[in-house]
Write a structure and sequence with these properties.
Serum Albumin, Chain A, Domain 1; five-stranded antiparallel sheet
């Protein structure tokens, strides 16, 4: 298979990932694959692989492209996690979750002594110090091959020259227009003088292009210092916001050891705290490994009951034990992810009776649209699984005049483990969340045989290398 053909397949991966009927035909490739929400962004990543880049290079370029083409969740003003599993060597993870600014306090989201969801999610006080740019740069600095500028410039071109608005994006922008009305710069960025974009029209984002140009030329300093930082601080000061240039300059992404586990012969590598998802996934799988799920029948009452019970216990442990590792150094992660602990949990599961819950307060949740995931496997079978977010669609809907959507991330709250007041916000705490990026693969493959690698956000459709 030629490289040109491989790139075409990679570029179409996202477009063909929509389920059709009971299933969909998987995309297969020999020299790498990129899967995202945006076909345009997938092509950007595929071109990087074609030009000799590795999985991390492709992930970085794709993430910047998504900040332009998928503004509801792709971002440079949010934060997230990356799991990198090299074909040879130890896996590593990168934590670039947003942090609370220095002026944050445990009472900042209270109004008249009561919690205010509006302040928490829809105000300038909801904005966390963004981590995406720092995280992408750290991963590239340690693992990348191609020049930084080569990875950011495709996003610059997309923002400057524009791209064709899809039907999904047109509908998304139209639905978000009402909540953007109180932010004139947001209306200017995402509408045509107040008129919604229609599918097939071209969306240009010149202010975002300028910010991306600074990032391309200066690296993280083009975002956390200089003109971009000044514009962001100016917007915060004008609206009683908390973030300062000092907050931006002091932000650092962190390389962390991954959470590891096994499940029926597959090796699991996932993100650790402040993502609770990795611990949760391994804990759930350890519990489920002790059951013959196949004999229960796919989607049977017995199988669903068993899965739900494992999830309940993992989420209870999440609430009790996990938080920001920079401020919680006694989290019992080794125990929570152990096979022995899973055996103890299985003893508490009654196959015929569930733990009491409250059906009167149950609501079927809307599948979130503020978080997006990308998966990359390169020709050498290096794999990246990355999840990043704005916390809600388009974040708090704030576009910084002159800089574009650079401060859209919402809810910079943090958990303190074993505390009922764990939802409070404190200075420099990272946002605690259940989202995680994960990789799974079968290590027991004979030399020369085709191996299988799966990288996915929890609950997303996995993609396999060809």
């Amino acid at each position: 298979m030629t490289k040109a053909r491989v790139v075409l397949i990679l570029g179409l991966a996202a477009a063909l990932s929509i389920p059709v009927g009971a299933g969909s035909v998987p995309i297969r490739a020999k020299n790498g694959i990129v899967a995202t929400q945006s076909e345009i962004a997938s092509r950007v990543g595929a071109d990087v692989i074609k030009d000799g880049g590795n999985a991390v290079d492709a992930a970085v370029a794709t993430a910047f492209a998504l900040a332009v083409t998928h503004p509801t969740a792709g971002n440079i003003g949010g934060g997230g996690f990356m799991v990198y599993r090299p074909a040879n060597g130890e896996a590593v993870t990168y934590d670039f979750r947003e942090k609370a600014p220095a002026k944050a306090s445990p009472t900042m989201w209270l109004k008249d002594g009561k919690y205010s969801a509006d302040i928490h999610h829809n105000s300038y006080w909801a904005v966390g110090v963004p981590g995406t740019v720092a995280g992408l740069h750290l991963a590239w600095k340690e693992q990348g091959k191609l020049p930084w500028k080569r990875l950011v410039d495709p996003a610059v071109a997309l923002a400057r020259d524009g791209f064709v608005v899809s039907d999904n994006l047109a509908r998304s922008l139209r639905s978000a227009q009402r909540t953007m009305q109180k932010y004139p710069a947001s209306v200017a960025a995402f509408t045509k003088n107040g008129t919604p974009y229609e599918a097939g029209e071209t969306l240009k984002q010149p202010d975002l292009a300028k910010t991306l140009e600074r990032i391309s030329a200066q690296g993280p300093a083009g975002f956390y210092e200089g003109e971009t930082a000044m514009l962001l601080e100016k917007e915060m000061q004008a609206h009683d916001g908390l973030i300062t240039r000092a907050d931006l300059k002091n932000y650092t992404a962190v390389r962390r050891a991954p959470i590891k586990g096994t499940y029926r012969g597959y090796e699991i590598v996932s993100m650790g705290p402040p993502s609770s998802g990795g611990v949760g996934i391994v804990e759930m799988l350890n519990v489920l490994e002790g059951y013959d799920l196949k004999s229960m029948g796919f989607a049977s009452a017995a199988e669903i009951h068993t899965m739900v019970e494992s999830m309940k216990r993992a989420y209870a442990d999440r609430a009790k034990f996990l938080g920001d590792p920079d401020f919680n150094n006694e989290m019992p992660i080794a125990r929570l992810t152990s096979k022995d602990y899973a055996a103890e949990l299985r003893k508490t599961i009654n196959p015929n009776k569930t733990i009491k819950s409250s059906p009167t307060t149950f609501e079927w949740p809307h599948e979130s649209d503020e978080t997006t995931h990308l998966s990359v496997v390169d020709a050498n079978r290096n794999a990246v699984s990355m999840t990043y977010t704005l916390e809600q669609g388009y974040g708090v809907k704030i576009v910084v005049p002159g800089a574009g959507p650079t401060s859209a991330a919402s809810s910079a709250r943090s958990r303190t483990s074993r505390s009922r007041a764990s939802g409070c916000c404190r200075a420099w705490r990272r946002r605690f969340c259940r989202r995680t990026a994960s990789c799974s693969w079968s290590p027991a493959v004979p030399a020369g045989a085709r191996s299988s690698t799966r990288c996915s956000r929890r609950s997303s459709t996995p993609w396999t290398s060809g």
